[in-house]
Amino acid sequence: MNILVCDDDKEILDAIKIYLENEGYKVFRASNGLAALEVVEEHEIHLVIMDIMMPQMDGLRATMKIREDKNIPVIMLSAKSEDTDKIMGLNMGADDYITKPFNPLELIARVRSQLRRYMTLGSMETKSNVYKTGGLVIDDECKVVSVDGDEVKLTPVQYKILKLLTANAGRVFSIDEIYEKVWKEVAFCPENTVAVHIRKIREGIEINPKEPKYLKVVWGIGYKVEKI
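Structure tokens predicted for Stage 0 sporulation protein A homolog:
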């Protein structure tokens, strides 16, 4: 997931970047609203953390500009704690509000909550290259897999297998079919090869790989991703 952090305080920018990268997110930085708008236009951003008081263009105006054509979550960040400031930020299009100084664990929790809502409510599935079943989402444009808003790291081969099965959720693929479609060659004793990758995928996307919710075996036939 790509997150933009916009703040004119370099120490805060650096600190938030460290917190988010430790959670596996890719972080883009900007020091004012104008720079933030450029980042949003040039990159696929999934969430914005936006300070209010900044030079050149403040966070409120930048959020209004983002809202003109994008529906990504925006968390306002400010030293002000008055209710009127929170209300103004939310009225300008922000999804959440957190005041400085903030607890890093609270910030991460709010980021996860907003990304989870963004993914599961279908804001991203309007794109033709997003495949979704339940809380499992594959954004093929960004090559990102997430479960309930949390990004899952897969190898390229594992990604291709999961994309094949998720794009055809509910359909059972034989081991030979999976091998031929992913490896682009005729299958020859592919059982162990495919099984190893299936096990690794389950370890990444399932809460309990032994009782999978998504990636299931159909004994004697093959594998499928459950249509939820």
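The domain at 2-120 is CATH 3.40.50.2300 (Rossmann fold).
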